[in-house]
């Protein structure tokens, strides 16, 4: 017997409320490649976010809260896909943020 799991999906409005990022920012981050392209509904073609998308967006919200620039966020996310070999650049990017400079 196999257990089926139903993945929860969220509208852009729900995603904005859960992440604290305005819907316009969610669209912008997708457009410029800060986040991966979001799935679309079959009939409506509206964005459909899932738990993995929310997880990624929460990381992005944290990066934005540090004052990290959008270009640095895009680089940070790309390096995350590369894996451990990009760890040095990840650390460098985070320590360049305005909040990190104050904390150090």
Can you tag this structure with a few keywords?
single chain, 104 residues, mainly alpha, Multidrug-efflux Transporter Regulator, Chain: A, Domain 2, three-stranded antiparallel sheet, 6 helices, 59% helix
How many strand elements?
A: 3
Helices and strands, in order, run as EHHEEHHHH
Distance between the termini: 54 Å
Query: What is the beta-strand fraction?
Result: 5-15%
CATH class assignment: Mainly Alpha
Mean pLDDT: 83
Number of contiguous helices: 6
Give the domain tally. 1
Radius of gyration, Cα only, in angstroms? 16 Å
Characterization of this structure:
- Strands 1-3-2 form a three-stranded antiparallel sheet.
- The longest helix has 15 residues, at about 50-65.
- The relative contact order is 0.13.
- The model has no long low-confidence stretch (mean pLDDT about 85).
- About 60% of the residues lie in helices and about 10% in strands.
- The protein has helices at about 10-20, 25-30, 50-65, 70-80, 85-95, 100-104, and strands spanning about 10, 40, 45-50.
- Helix 4 (about 70-80) runs antiparallel to helix 5 (about 85-95).
- The chain has one domain: Multidrug-efflux Transporter Regulator, Chain: A, Domain 2 (Orthogonal Bundle), CATH 1.10.1660.10.
- By secondary structure, it is mostly helical.
- The protein has six helices and three strands; from the N terminus they run E-H-H-E-E-H-H-H-H.
- The protein is globular and about 40 Å long.
- Strand 2 and strand 3 form a beta hairpin.
């Amino acid at each position: 017997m196999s257990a089926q799991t139903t993945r929860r999906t969220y509208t852009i409005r729900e995603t904005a409320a859960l992440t604290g990022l305005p819907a316009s920012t969610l669209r912008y981050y997708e457009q410029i490649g800060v986040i991966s392209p979001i799935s679309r509904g079959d009939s409506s073609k509206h964005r459909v976010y899932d738990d993995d998308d929310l997880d990624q967006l929460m990381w992005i919200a944290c990066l934005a809260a540090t004052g990290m620039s959008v270009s640095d966020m895009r680089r940070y996310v790309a390096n995350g896909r590369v894996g451990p070999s990009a760890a040095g650049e990840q650390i460098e990017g985070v320590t360049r943020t305005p909040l990190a400079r104050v904390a150090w």
